[in-house]
Structures are given as C-alpha cells and as structure tokens.
Amino acid sequence: MTYSTIPTARLGENGPEVGVQGLGCMGMSFAYGPTDADESRAALERALELGVTLYDTADAYGAGENETFLSPFFKAHRDEVVIATKFALAVPPDDPTRRIIRNDAPYVRESVEASLKRLDVDVIDLYYMHRRDVNVPIEDTVGVMAELVREGKVRQLGLSEVTAAELRAAQGVHPIAAVQSEWSLFSRDIEAQVVPAARELGVSLVPYSPLGRGFLTGSFADAATDLTADDFRRQQPRYNGENAAANAALLEPVRTVAEAHGASLGQIALAWVQQRSAVHGLPVIPIPGTRKPGRVEENTAATAIVLSDEELALLEPISAKVAGDRYADMRFTSAGRE
Ligand SMILES: NC(=O)c1ccc[n+]([C@@H]2O[C@H](COP(=O)([O-])OP(=O)(O)OC[C@H]3O[C@@H](n4cnc5c(N)ncnc54)[C@H](OP(=O)(O)O)[C@@H]3O)[C@@H](O)[C@H]2O)c1
User: Fold this and answer.
1) Which residue segment(s) compose the domain that 20 sits in?
2) Number of domains making up the chain
3) Per the domain annotation, does 57 fall within a domain?
4) pTM exceeding 0.90
5) pLDDT at 32
6) 154/179 Cα distance (integer angstroms)
7) What pLDDT score was predicted for residue 224?
8) Ligand 1 pocket, Cβ-based, cut-off 6 angstroms
9) How close is the Cα of 215 to the center of ligand 1, in Å?
10) Catalytic entry in 55, 61, 107, 208
11) Is residue 331 part of a domain?
C-alpha cells in the first residue's frame, strides 16, 4: 500500500503551516508500558516522511527523559520539525514520585532552560503551560512566557486544559497560538466553551488523546486486566472495570462506520476529530500518540477520510453515554473549573 503526504493547517493566527496531524511522543518514554527505542525512532522518521511536522512532548514525560530521547531526531531535522513542549508539573522536593502544579515565574524560567538543554536546541517552537495553578494569576504566567518569546527562547505560546475565561485573560497579555486539550469521540466537554472562545480569538486547537488513549482503537478492553501495573490508564475511571465494559459497547457505531469505509476504528476516531475543524470553524491539529511506524501510516491515512452527515449523526450520541471521568481528579482539567 502506498501512503501520501498529509495536508497542512495553520498553527496559531500568524504561525507556521504544520501537518494537519501531529505526533504525540509521550508514550515513547512514559505512561503506557514497555517501550522500544528503535521502534519509536522509526515511528518518528516515518511520521516526518508522511508530512507530520508537529511533535509533542513535555518536561514531565519521564522527568525529562522524553525530551532527551527526542533530541537527536529534532537536531537531525531541525528545520523540518515544530517542537512543542510544556512546563507546570513539578517534582516536589520531599517526594520525587509526586507532581505538583507550578505556574510561578521563577519556575517557568527554570523549566524553559532545562527543556532547552535537554532538547539541545536554541529555541522551542511552541511552549505550553501544561496545567493551571489557580493560585497564580494566568496573566502573570503568560507575562513571563511572553518575556521568553521576546528573549528568543520560545517562538509561540500554548495552554493546556484551560477554561475559556482563562484563555481570554491569557490572550489579553500575549497571542496564544494553540490550546491543547483532550478532544475525542469520548471527551467533548471543551466544545461548550473552550472551542468557541478559541475560534473567536484565532487560536488553533490541538486535541490530545484523540484515540481515547488507545481505547477507541479497540486495542485494550479493560486497563485493569489488559495493561501493565504501572500503566497510567489504570488510574483513569473510564478505562477500568464496569465502566470499561459499558464503554466498549459504545464502540459499535464506530465499527459500523469503519466497515463502510474499509477503515479501522482508530481511523474513524481520528477522522471525526479532524472534522471538528469544519464543524466548529477553526484549525484542528490532533496529536495521536504511537510508537509504531505502521500505526503512524494508519493514523495519518485517516486524514483522507471524510465522514458523511449521516455518519456524524450516528457517532453523535456516544460521548454523552461514556461511563466514568477522563481523569480521577477533574479539578486539573478545564471542565473541572468551568
Ligand atoms: N496536554 C496534556 O495534558 C496531555 C495529556 C495526555 C497526552 N498528551 C499528548 O497527547 C499525545 C496523544 O495522546 P495519548 O498518547 O494520551 O492518547 P491517544 O493518542 O489517544 O492514544 C495513544 C494510545 O493508542 C495506541 N495507538 C495509537 N495508534 C494506534 C493504532 N493505529 N491502533 C491501535 N492503537 C493505537 C498507542 O499505542 P502505541 O504507542 O503502542 O502505538 C497508545 O497506547 C501524547 O503522546 C502526548 O504528547 C497531552
């Protein structure tokens, strides 16, 4: 089978054109069980060949490990890739296994220097605030992020899991290129307020976990029994036990649509997220995560699938029926504060 290069979309009002699908790199070092470095490197190279240019990491993915792992790939292709990383999940001095949220200026400055060093680049293309610390005014955090732009350490700014009000306040300080939040057939809470605000403000949407962390592909049915003990998905209510069993049944209409297109479940899930761009009128650049070159091919091929109005209608009721939250503690999501 031959695969063609994916189309592009604009990242932020005055930003670069990037492949309309990015690549989530988190699982290459963190959260989703055993990894194979050679296979991950092959996935990165295959993605670039197919027109994927936005690569997503964070300092928190394996306590810096993911940025370090990606560094040689980024250096080899510096002019072709758009590097997105994040700060805010800090290691408290008394317990290296825990994470606390920090948005204060000294922490932002310390974090950007550490990320630049690990990535071994002069500038980060897109720098996100990963989570919101409600004790720090967002204007102050974005203020220091804007200083990083003026100093040439960062090109564009992004925010993850912010509310519409937080996005508006941030945009008053400095243009925000992208909001990265969870958006999939199972997670549509941002459509109420965040997406309309992003459209109005000229902000692009970067949906994370567009495959429902793999659940929407049918690759696991119950995190508690199918995944390794340290897998992060075992902490997420909707992928475990009775919730998971009820949610697996919700994939039936996805299967029906997939059969009609000769596509996989995951491809339909990705095509649906991609089509949010036309439905909501803003650039949408999902970042499915995979460590396998064959899955990069499968996922990027989904950019060519267009779902009919009837198919969209069939998929429409799914999210309202999902059992269990997307995180154990929803306070750290936009939905938990909106
Ligand atoms: N801002 C935030 O708070 C936040 C939170 C979570 C994630 N993220 C970012 O978003 C990216 C994507 O989200 P995600 O990785 O959580 O979830 P996702 O993209 O919804 O799903 C990733 C999972 O699906 C599997 N998968 C991928 N393609 C597949 C295919 N074609 N068939 C079967 N299984 C497939 C992957 O396994 P393999 O790797 O084994 O293929 C992995 O287990 C992350 O990598 C990270 O960069 C950001």
Assistant:
1) 9-220+274-302
2) 1
3) yes
4) yes
5) 94
6) 16
7) 94
8) 24-27, 32, 56, 130, 160-161, 180, 208-214, 217, 219, 266, 287-292, 295, 298-299
9) 10
10) 61
11) no
pLDDT confidence of residue 154: 98
As given in the structure block, the two tokens for residue 61 are 């993915």
> CA 189, CA 238: separation in Å to the nearest integer?
15
CATH number for the domain that contains residue 13: 3.20.20.100
State residue 87's pLDDT score. Answer: 98
Instruction: Assess if residue 201 is contained within a domain.
Output: yes
Inter-residue contact 92 to 323 (CB < 8 Å): no
- The whole-number pLDDT of residue 3 equals 82
Below-70 pLDDT ranges, the chain: none
What whole-number distance in Å separates Cα of residue 162 and Cα of residue 153? 23
With respect to residue 103, please indicate whether it lies within any of the assigned structural domains: yes
Q: Which atom of ligand 1 is nearest to the CA of 184?
A: 20
User: What pLDDT sits at residue 317?
Assistant: 98
- Single-letter code of the amino acid located at 263: A
Strands 82-87 and 124-129: parallel
Number of other CB atoms surrounding residue 48 within 10 Å? 19
Dihedral of CA atoms 98, 102, 105, 107 in degrees, nearest 10, equals: 10
Q: How far is the CA of 161 from the centre of ligand 1 (A)?
A: 17
